[in-house]
């Protein structure tokens, strides 16, 4: 055996890549040497046969081919859908989370997320409420000051995402770095995470907004020029066409910089939306909300733009805006909320409740109840969506019932796509609310098991009671959207069934005409033959019809006997049904006489 090993080693050293007549790739010599080194001298092994050598050779060639065909993707940034799917420079196995104690969060490849934020801090107690407004620098300096002793509860509402603000809040409140990573990652699922000193809640805000055309201000001046009697008709038509092309270009173009004009900011504060700025995807914060199709969108920019332009709400100058909302509930009775652009829509009704003495939100001074108010306001913003989609589908239903066409199925498909995406974001809110209700305090089981979150994060029993109202609203919205989705699918089926029935009726009519004229065509061709000795041609036209009419009648009776029989059966049944209806509609004495007469 030792002689065989030495011979094999000598053969491998003299001829690289070969061992006992078997070919090996040069990169596999280490595995061969290790295999030879593990041969025990005490065991005898029989030499490999030619069949085994061929099998080993084919296996090695197959593995080498697979290694050449597949290669691990090193740069994962090429496969990211957009800048919201993962942080820039992200790689598999990277350190999770963002450390608020480090300037870059512990990720050198992460660019600084900077934006001008509108921050509102509200301190309140049963007897007093103070509201303050800050920008980024003033808010960071304000956090260094101690909280007033009279302030029982605090709410920090941040409109906009900026790393300096997130870092300051995370460092001051001791927020977990995984939660901070979820705040900056805009592709999170709806969930509630529990940490030792706080709870983190993330969900999607959906709201109905109005479309804003950037060329509206210029079109008004153009309209004024159109009324001028001096320009010619050709010039006015040219102006109108140029204005229409400019509007279409503004809707379909993709700018490379975000819209930070004052007019755009004011439009965003009023709840307006501009599709021209919705195509912007940069690392800076967005001044205008994103549309539903651009939120958690696929990697196809062409598809997203097409879905935005062809949205069924477009002719009504409306759209659905979506954004991610992050909420922290800390153990020191503080609630912190981060919005992208819609903080004012949620803040307005809650500030009204906090400004009124005697409300349950003001009297309780409970941060968990404040979180419930935030969830309730976010869910309530989706209520108008059911109304506008019900109105839209009602109009489409009238069109389908009066004049069905294949183009209506396209609009219905777009409605179903939008409803499906809204349900994707709204349905998980049920699980979120149930998770908060299950974490009610006092959590005796968690305290006995040593769960730190059970000691610090408090969800009061009053909050659990009012969370049921949020759950009811969410279920009502989801049920309404499910019903609208089912109605849209039924309308699509009705369109195709109606079109198919119309085509079948047309084919039936064509078949009937063909059956009637088939014998006539045959006899016409028979009498139209070019023969010299054809005495039947001299009998006149009556002879032709004497042959054609009986033949046509016989052909119709033979080929359409099932249809004719069914028609007579339906006619008899219809008369029977009409007679029964007349008898039922008649007065009771007369009906009784008719029944007795029919029995006799």
Automatic annotation (TrEMBL):
Annotated region (Disordered), positions in chain: 1-59, 81-109, 244-293
CC per GO annotation: plasma membrane
Highest taxon, organism lineage: Eukaryota
Membrane topology per record: Multi-pass membrane protein
InterPro entries recorded: CorA_cytoplasmic_dom (IPR045861), CorA_TM1_TM2 (IPR045863), MgTranspt_CorA/ZnTranspt_ZntB (IPR002523)
Subcellular location: Cell membrane
Keyword terms, alphabetized: Cell membrane, Membrane, Transmembrane, Transmembrane helix, Transport
Keyword flag Phosphoprotein: no
Keyword Oxidoreductase: no
Transmembrane segments: 510-529, 541-568
Residue ranges with Basic and acidic residues bias: 263-272
Molecular-function annotations in GO: cobalt ion binding; cobalt ion transmembrane transporter activity; magnesium ion binding; magnesium ion transmembrane transporter activity
Family recorded in the similarity comment: Belongs to the CorA metal ion transporter (MIT) (TC 1.A.35) family.
PANTHER family in alphabetical order: CORA FAMILY METAL ION TRANSPORTER (EUROFUNG)
Protein name, entry field: Magnesium transport protein CorA
Organism: Ophiocordyceps unilateralis (Zombie-ant fungus)
Lineage of origin: Eukaryota, Fungi, Dikarya, Ascomycota, Pezizomycotina
């Amino acid at each position: 055996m030792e002689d065989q090993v030495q011979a094999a080693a000598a053969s491998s050293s003299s001829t690289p890549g070969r061992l006992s007549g078997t070919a090996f790739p040069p990169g596999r010599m280490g595995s061969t040497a290790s295999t030879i080194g593990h041969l025990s001298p005490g065991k005898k092994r029989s030499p490999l046969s030619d069949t085994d050598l061929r099998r080993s050779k084919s296996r090695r060639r197959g593995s080498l081919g697979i290694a050449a065909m597949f290669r691990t993707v090193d740069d994962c940034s090429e496969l990211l859908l957009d800048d919201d799917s993962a942080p820039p420079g992200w790689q598999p196995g990277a350190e999770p989370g963002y450390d608020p104690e480090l300037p870059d969060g512990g990720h050198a490849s992460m660019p600084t997320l900077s934006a001008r934020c509108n921050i509102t801090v509200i301190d309140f107690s049963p007897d007093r409420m103070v509201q303050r407004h800050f920008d980024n620098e003033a808010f960071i300096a304000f956090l260094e000051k101690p909280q007033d002793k009279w302030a029982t509860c605090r709410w920090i509402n941040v409109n906009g995402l900026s790393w300096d603000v997130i870092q300051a809040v995370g460092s001051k409140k001791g927020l977990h770095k995984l939660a901070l990573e979820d705040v900056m990652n805009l592709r999170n699922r709806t969930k509630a995470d529990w940490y030792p000193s706080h709870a983190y809640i993330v969900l999607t805000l959906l709201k109905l907004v109005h479309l804003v055309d950037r060329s509206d201000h210029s079109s008004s001046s153009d309209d004024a020029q159109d009324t001028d009697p001096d320009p010619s008709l050709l010039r006015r038509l040219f102006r109108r066409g140029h204005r229409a092309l400019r509007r279409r270009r503004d809707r379909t173009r993709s700018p490379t910089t975000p819209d930070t004009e004052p007019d755009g900011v004011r439009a965003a504060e009023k709840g307006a939306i501009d599709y021209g700025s919705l195509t912007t995807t940069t690392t800076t914060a967005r001044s205008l909300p994103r549309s539903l199709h651009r939120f958690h969108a696929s990697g196809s920019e062409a598809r997203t733009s097409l879905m935005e332009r062809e949205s069924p709400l477009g002719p009504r100058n409306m759209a659905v805006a979506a954004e991610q909302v992050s909420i922290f509930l800390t153990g020191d009775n503080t609630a912190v909320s981060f919005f992208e652009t819609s903080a004012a829509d949620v803040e307005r009704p809650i500030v009204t409740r906090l400004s009124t003495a005697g409300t349950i939100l003001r009297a309780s001074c409970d941060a968990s109840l404040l979180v419930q108010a935030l969830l309730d306001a976010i869910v309530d913003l989706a209520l108008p969506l059911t109304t506008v989609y019900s109105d839209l589908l009602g109009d489409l239903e009238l069109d389908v019932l009066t004049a069905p066409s294949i183009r209506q199925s396209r609009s219905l498909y777009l409605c179903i796509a939008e409803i499906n995406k809204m349900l994707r974001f709204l349905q998980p809110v049920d699980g979120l609310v149930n998770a908060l209700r299950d974490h009610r305090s006092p959590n005796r089981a968690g305290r006995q098991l040593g769960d730190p979150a059970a000691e610090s994060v408090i969800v009061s029993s009053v909050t659990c009671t009012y969370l049921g109202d949020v759950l009811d609203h969410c279920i009502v919205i989801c049920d309404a959207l499910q019903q609208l989705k089912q109605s849209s699918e039924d309308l699509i089926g009705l369109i195709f069934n109606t079109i198919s029935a119309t085509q079948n009726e047309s084919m039936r009519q064509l078949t009937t005409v063909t059956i009637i004229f088939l014998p006539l065509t045959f006899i016409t061709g028979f009498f139209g033959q070019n023969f010299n000795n054809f005495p039947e041609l001299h009998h006149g036209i009556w002879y032709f019809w004497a042959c054609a009419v009986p033949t046509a009648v016989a052909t119709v009776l033979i080929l359409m006997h099932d249809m004719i029989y069914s028609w007579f059966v339906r006619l008899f049944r219809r008369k029977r049904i009409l007679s029964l209806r007349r008898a039922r509609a008649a007065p009771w004495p007369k009906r009784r006489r008719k029944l007795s007469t029919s029995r006799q």
